[in-house]
């Protein structure tokens, strides 16, 4: 028995180091998700109103998932250091729960991507129709148009049917150059056509989403299936420790 234990010590040490490395990377993933969730909540809050008519729960989901992963990652490091089989098995169960959650989220997002585009079209059209230049949704529309260099929903003519156009014309955020864009020109449908961006914002956003859907799906499922590596390491380490009655100091 003694030689067998001595032979498995290097393997157990290797598994321990690999699990510690994995847990650290897992913890970093949690920090990133938490940061993205907070950034979305506090920096992209107004823009979220253009995606849905009601406040999105996605930032809270990211913050909650990130916080849970941070705690699970710390527990994984502790479990690897202590080398207690029950801790390692519990860590594997926690990783499995994260894996299932991420897998469901990824599949749901991929399946309902067309519904998301439809909701965005409805919400953005409504924001343009009732634009006033002052509320949060109006400011979000201005931000999208100026940063993406687009105008209106399908194109700049979307503004002709808005409540804002009769008295104010097309918003200045549509202007290609603010210095060469007067209010009188923005009120004139013919002159405005040469002063504002011609491409619609909806087409631009949807085109970006569709062109990057493969990358987004790949990253989502890649991160999800990385939990399988952690589960395997935790279960293998627990098995070798139990089988060989090995105690880590």
Order of helices and strands: HHHHHHHHHH
Stretches with pLDDT under 50, minimum 5 residues: none
Gyration radius (Cα, Å) is 26 Å
Care to count the β-strands?
A: 0
Apparent shape: rod-shaped
- Report the total helices: 10
Q: Return the average pLDDT rounded to an integer.
A: 83
The proportion of strand residues reads under 5%
**What structural class should be given to the helix and strand makeup?**
mainly alpha
Distance between the termini: 20 Å
- Characterize the main sheet: none
- Helical amount: over 70%
Walk me through what this model shows.
The chain has helices at 2-43, 45-51, 58-82, 85-111, 113-129, 136-148, 165-168, 183-187, 189-192, 201-244. It has 249 residues and is mostly helical. The radius of gyration is 26 Å and the shape is rod-shaped. The two termini are 20 Å apart. The mean pLDDT is 83.
